[in-house]
Design a protein that fits this description.
Layout lengths: L5 H8 L12 H9 L3 E3 L7 E3 L1 H9 L35 H22 L10 H5 L1 H11 L13 E4 L6 E4 L3 H13 L2 E7 L6 E7 L3
Antiparallel strand pairs: 1-2, 3-4, 4-6, 5-6
Length: 212
Amino acid sequence: MKPPTAAQRRIIAAAEPETGRLSGTEAQLTGLVRARLAFRHPRPPHAYFLTPAGHRVREEGATPAAPEPPPAPAPAPSGVFAARTGTETAPVGPEGPSRAREVRGAWEGLIELRRMTNTDGSRERPCAWERGHLVQAAALALEATGCEPAGAGHDGYRVAPSPQPEAVTVRASTPTDLRACVAALERAGWQTSEHAEARGGARYVLASPRRT
């Protein structure tokens, strides 16, 4: 493999510190893909990210960009997949087999993002994107493993932000459902702890992405 050019090193050095997302012209980014230092994510908006080899180049010789705070979770715009948190006030996406296909595709895309952006290529450990989009990432892990979100006319899980740093709150309609959520999140690489509300004693779970 040819060593990266000075221009390529500058692009690599300017990658987002947490996610490895790259900025540049299409020709520059395509050149990094050909050099196996970057990849183009298969799902919209088809952003470019450093591969493990790209991360090594940055660690070995490039100067990292100044850290930026992770983006706050936000509702996806119309037409873009959004995991169901169980707190929606309006329908999210299609129903039935179409929804199942969307969820499966989104989960497969996230696993691939883990492989390509975790420096060791791990698929089992959450990646920087998940730590920057905690509610959506936890909700996708739950929906992809068959847990049912709360919705009109039925109970289910509800995922919401937590005051605790890098964690979400997960509630469910029954203890059995809550245990199912815990099992699903732990299989997806999250760590969990169960707590009781100060008033009423209702049980809930704090979940955060594992780093190791």
